[in-house]
Amino acid sequence: MSLYPKTLYHKTAIPKRVWTEDAEKQAKEQGWVFPSYQRQEFPKTMYHATKKPQIVDSAEAQKALGSQWFDKPQEGNLTHVDPATVADADHTEMLERCINPDLPGAMQLLRKARREDAEAQSEEPRKAKRAS
């Protein structure tokens, strides 16, 4: 029974297959391992409280996003509420999950977003009725 081919794993590269014992030894000297999978940190998705998720391919790209981005969604962990960002947000539901109610002005902004969403929804049937 042959032990080859073998799939080897590395932290920073896609898995590769070796066909001989010599090729396996050479690969292991370069950090390749068998049989356990090596978790790769990148690419990964980064999350912001009020912006769409971004995919980053390196530590440099992650650092360039800034300190307000996290590798997991953060609920109730918003440290700054920018009224312009909140006013332009797509979904009130997202704001409800993200805004810390203890921040000054946060709940007023959320109520305003809810009110504007309700007004926009009530306008849509009227516009459709006028158009027909």
Number of domains: 3
SS summary, helix count: 5
Order of helices and strands: EEHEEHEHHH
Instruction: Give the termini distance in whole angstroms.
Output: 76 Å
| % residues in beta strands | 15-25%
In helices, the fraction of residues equals 40-55%
* Mean pLDDT over the residues: 75
Q: Topology of this protein?
A:
Blueprint: E1 6-10, E2 13-18, H1 21-29, E3 44-48, E4 54-56, H2 59-65, E5 69-70, H3 83-87, H4 92-98, H5 106-131
Antiparallel strand pairs: 1-2, 3-4, 3-5
Structure report:
The protein is α+β, with helices and mostly antiparallel strands and 132 residues long. The protein has 3 domains: 1-38, no CATH class; 41-73, no CATH class; 75-127, no CATH class. The protein has helices at 21-29, 59-65, 83-87, 92-98, 106-131, and strands spanning 6-10, 13-18, 44-48, 54-56, 69-70. The strands form 2 sheets. Strands 4-3-5 form a 3-stranded antiparallel β-sheet, covered by helices on one side. Strands 1-2 form a two-stranded antiparallel sheet. The radius of gyration is 25 Å and the shape is elongated. The termini are far apart. Mean pLDDT is 75; it is low at 77-81.
